[in-house]
Amino acid sequence: MYVKLKKQLLIYAESIRCFEFALMNKYTIKGQPYFFQKLFPSKGVISVQGQAVHYNYHGAGCSLKFPSFDLDYNVVGLGEGDLYISLWSFKEFYRSQETIAEDIPLPQMLACLDLFVQDGLLVCYAENSHRSYFFSENCLDENDISMTKLLNRMN
Question: Shortest CA distance to 53 belongs to which of 95, 21, 83?
Answer without folding.
Answer: 21
